[in-house]
Design brief:
The chain is about 50% helix and about 15% strand. By secondary structure, the protein is an alpha+beta fold. It has a single domain, classed as Butyryl-CoA Dehydrogenase, subunit A, domain 3, CATH 1.20.140.150. Strand 3 (about 60) and strand 4 form a beta hairpin. Helix 1 (about 10-30) packs antiparallel against helix 2 (about 95-120) and helix 3 runs antiparallel to helix 5 (about 185-210).
Length: about 230
C-alpha cells in the first residue's frame, strides 16, 4: 500500500532539488557568462525619443551563445540579438569550453533526473530496499563534482580567439582582460554550492520520513501522513 509521507525536511529537499536543477539549466543556456568591453555608439546613432546619443552597450558571451547589438538602416535603430554562435559542438570556441559543456551537461542531466524523482518520494521512499533519498543524495554529490570540474575548466578558455574579440588582447587563461563575469557564471557557482547542500540534506529528508512518528502513523492505518 502506498503511503503519502510529507515532512518539512523532505519537502524542503524536494523544492531545493528542483530549484537547483532549473538554476543550473538556465545558467548553462544563457549567454551572460562574460560581459564584454563597452562598444561605443557611432556619432550618427541617435535615440529617436530623446534626441541624444545612445549609450554604449556591452556584448555578452556564453559557452556556446552570444548576445550582440545589430543595427537597422531605417531610423538607425539597434536591437540586441542573442543566439548560439556555434552551430555544432565542434564550433564551440575553446576545447576547454567544450569540456565545460560536457561536464555541465552531465551534471545538469543528473540534477534534472533527481528533481523529477524527488517529486515521487512522497509516495515511494525506497526501491530495491535502498532509500531513494540516499541514492538521490549520492547522485547530487556526483553531479556537484561534474559541475565543479566544468567551472574550473571554463576560465582556462578565456584565451581563445572568441573571448579575446570580446575581452581585448590582454585576455588569457584565467585572466578576464576587459571583460567581467556575468550573472550566469555566478548562478552556476551558487547552484553548485546548493547541489552539495541538497546532497547533505537528503540524509535529513530520509531521517524525517522514517522517524518513529511516521511509523506510528502508518501503524494507525493512515495513508496520508503530514508532519512538521
Amino acid at each position: 500500500m502506498c503511503h503519502v509521507i510529507v515532512t518539512c525536511r523532505s519537502m524542503l529537499w524536494t523544492l531545493l532539488s528542483i530549484v537547483v536543477a532549473f538554476a543550473e539549466l538556465i545558467a548553462f543556456m544563457s549567454a551572460d557568462w562574460l560581459i564584454g568591453k563597452a562598444k561605443p555608439s557611432n556619432s550618427e546613432d541617435v535615440d529617436n525619443r530623446t534626441g541624444g546619443s545612445q549609450e554604449p552597450y556591452h556584448p555578452t558571451l556564453g559557452i556556446y551563445g552570444r548576445c550582440t547589438r545589430i543595427s537597422h538602416m531605417q531610423f538607425s535603430r539597434r536591437d540586441t540579438l542573442c543566439g548560439p554562435y556555434a552551430e555544432n559542438f565542434n564550433e564551440i570556441a575553446s576545447g576547454f569550453w567544450q569540456a565545460t559543456a560536457i561536464f555541465l551537461a552531465m551534471g545538469i542531466m543528473i540534477l534534472c533526473t533527481v528533481a523529477f524523482v524527488s517529486v515521487f518520494t512522497m509516495c515511494v521512499q525506497s526501491i530495491m530496499k535502498k532509500s531513494i533519498f540516499n541514492v538521490c543524495g549520492l547522485l547530487q554529490g556526483i553531479a556537484g563534482l561534474f559541475l565543479i570540474l566544468g567551472l574550473i575548466l571554463y576560465p582556462a578558455g578565456w584565451g581563445c580567439q572568441k573571448a579575446i574579440s570580446y575581452c581585448g588582447p590582454y585576455a588569457s587563461a584565467y585572466k578576464l582582460g576587459d571583460c567581467s563575469l556575468g550573472w550566469a557564471f555566478y548562478t552556476a557557482i551558487g547552484g553548485t554550492v546548493l547541489t552539495f547542500i541538497c546532497a547533505v540534506f537528503s540524509a535529513q529528508a530520509e531521517i524525517a520520513t522514517s522517524s518513529d512518528k511516521v511509523q506510528e502513523e502508518i501503524e494507525e492505518g493512515k495513508n496520508l501522513i503530514c508532519l512538521l
